[in-house]
Amino acid sequence: MGIISWIILGLLAGAIAKFLLPGRDPGGFIGTTLIGVVGAFLGGWISARFLDQPITKDFYDGATWLSAIGGSLVLLIIYRLLFGNSRS
């Protein structure tokens, strides 16, 4: 997968992470989307580096999607813990 594919996957993973973890986000839609893109890269890297499950080059692979959504969820939780109380 190329960089554009990872960005698209990240956008979709961020939207799915937001759906799975509803609530107010300090960054709004843009922040959640950026977290999704970074989370997709992070999830793919963690999967390949530490779990010995290299990400395939197929956009429709289930492991690719799970790692992207998992990375997005982790980053979204960390983001809410760090910056969740900054907006009332």
Indicate the overall shape. Answer: globular
Strand content bin: under 5%
SSE topology string: HHH
- Count the helices. How many? 3
Alpha-carbon Rg, integer = 13 Å
Structural class: mainly alpha
Unreliable stretches covering 5 or more consecutive residues: none
Would you tell me the overall average pLDDT?
Answer: 77
Residue share in helix: over 70%
Quaternary state, please? single chain
Largest sheet: none
Total number of strands: 0
End-to-end separation: 40 Å
For this entry, give a set of tags.
single chain, 88 residues, mainly alpha, 70% helix
Question: What would you note in describing this structure?
Answer:
There is one protein chain. Helix 1 crosses helix 2, helix 1 crosses helix 3 and helix 2 (28-49) crosses helix 3 (62-83). The protein has helices at residues 3-20, 28-49, 62-83. The mean pLDDT is 77. 70% of the residues lie in helices and 0% in strands.
Topology:
Layout: H1 3-20, H2 28-49, H3 62-83
At a glance:
This protein is mainly α and 88 residues long. Helices cover 70% and strands 0% of the residues. The radius of gyration is 13 Å and the shape is globular.
